[in-house]
Write a structure and sequence with these properties.
single chain; 176 residues; alpha+beta; three-stranded antiparallel beta sheet; 6 helices; 3 strands; 56% helix; 14% strand
Amino acid sequence: MTREVLSDCKVALAELWKGPTGQQWRIQWVGMLALLRTVASTFNEEAKRGAPLHPNLKKELEGFWSRMKASQPKPEIYWRFIRDDTNDLLHYWKFSAAQHSTVQRDEMTMSTEKMSAQPSFTHSVDTSGEHKGFTPGHTYLMKSDLFKDQDQRDVVQQAIDWYEREIADMIERAKP
């Protein structure tokens, strides 16, 4: 169960790397955070209802939350990103990340944060009648203090990597 949710996280992250915009980005970001939060929630469920486990591994899974609470506020990737950002999003519809649209025009970049609408780009006509070109682009930056200005997809990858280390550590500690 846990590995299935973690695998879904990886697929969702691959979708975010495709550069969704507007409402599509927002829906994918909400789904991404929900999946990341679900991974931690599955540890106890895995121990209770999963496939038969070695007693040591079952004990490790059941002890996850005790270890997490004892180490709070570390690891920050969990407490400050996975937990806090998910709580802010699900309880208050407050986004810790944003998708920005940028337009490169005549060596000048304009940027606008897009949360709900598809970005629209226009081009201008200069006085000679020639069309000035533009190159649309997008950035995906975190707004929250600890991860501010980091690419949100990199922060998600850090979270996935942390979960994978946690699972590997639990398996290692469970060895007889």
